[in-house]
Design brief:
Largest sheet: 2 strands, antiparallel
Strand content: 5-15%
Strand order of the largest sheet: 1-2
Helix content: 10-25%
Mean pLDDT: 79
């Protein structure tokens, strides 16, 4: 939607680098962006078994 000019997107920069270079997207609120890399860790509550659906992805 942000590419259509209909809002903001919070995106991982390497994933939208081409759009930034071409001008389809532009950085806004850059002064408020973190200046150090941010690492996020997600801890799953249980292990998925083979063949079980896991977060919308199928285990192979």
């Amino acid at each position: 939607m942000a590419k259509l000019g209909l809002g903001l997107a919070y995106a991982f920069e390497p994933m939208v680098m081409e759009e930034l270079r071409s001008g389809q997207l532009q950085r806004v609120l850059e002064p408020y962006a973190p200046t150090v890399p941010v690492l996020l860790f997600v801890r799953r509550r249980r292990r998925a078994r083979a063949g079980e659906s896991c977060g919308g992805l199928q285990a192979r």
